[in-house]
Design goal:
Strand content: 15-25%
Shape: elongated
Oligomer: single chain
Length: 245
């Protein structure tokens, strides 16, 4: 198999199809790289230069925001690599963007977020300071937030403009325990959450604050691997141009 396919990869049709292809991840996120490697994929790393300056308020549905950002990242990297070396275009560029949103509290733990009434959701940015991180986590304490990752793939086709764009989004609810304030403050003092959207890292010390996750854990970390590989399977079945040009 190609260097992009690791020995631990399952022998699936999509994995066999990816063998020998030039696969690029438009991100330098170590978490996304680690998740992909866990499932046997080691793409080239070409971080996007897209400014990520889209206005969240310009979207009718806030869930479209990370998908749009991921799309801009993927297209920027694909076009740049084609311009740099037209004879060696990438076969697949992968990009992702993860955001954290406020969410209504389900009335019981058995109520899926998909049946909750629609509410206005606010984007939880990275905290600007330790004080802001403490405020953010106290607001989330005992409550729920929604983590949404937009994933976009770009690959070559024969029709103009020479590539096509396909996207999905994955949504996961994160339930916070009703943590004593000294626990929340101790986490804030660790400064782990300062550079994280929502102010916490579930795969690190922030996991102490979490009661349960409804959905894909890897999505909360930064990349929804199960949905991504299912997405590639679907493209393999439905798009005759996928990984063929």
């Amino acid at each position: 198999m190609s260097s992009h396919i690791l020995p631990n990869a399952l022998k699936l049709p999509i994995i066999k199809k990816l063998a020998g292809k030039r696969i690029v991840l438009a991100s330098n996120s170590p978490r996304r790289q680690e998740i992909l490697r866990t499932f046997g994929l080691a793409p080239d790393i070409v971080p996007s230069t897209f400014e990520e300056d889209l206005a969240p308020g310009s979207f009718d549905d806030i869930h479209e925001y990370p998908v749009a950002t991921a799309t801009h990242k993927a297209v920027e990297v694909y076009e740049r690599l084609v311009n740099e070396d037209p004879k060696n275009p990438p076969d697949l560029v992968i990009a992702a963007d993860t955001v954290v949103l406020t969410h209504a509290q389900p009335s019981t733990s058995n109520v899926s977020y998909t049946v909750l009434p629609g509410t206005n959701q606010e984007l939880l940015e990275k905290p600007s300071s330790k004080e802001d991180n403490l405020r953010m986590l106290l607001d989330l304490n005992g409550g729920v937030c929604e983590v949404v990752t937009g994933v976009t793939v770009v690959y070559p086709v024969l029709t103009a403009p020479g590539y096509t764009i396909k996207s999905i989004d994955e949504r996961t609810l994160v339930y916070f325990s009703d943590n004593p304030q000294h626990v929340v403050k101790a986490y804030v003092d660790s400064e782990e959450g300062i550079d994280r959207a929502g102010g916490f890292a579930i795969q690190g010390l922030g996991g102490l604050l979490i009661r349960k996750v409804e959905g894909d854990y890897h999505n909360v970390v930064g990349f929804p691997a199960a949905s991504f590989f299912a997405f590639l399977d679907l493209l393999l079945d439905e798009d005759p141009d996928f990984l063929e040009v």
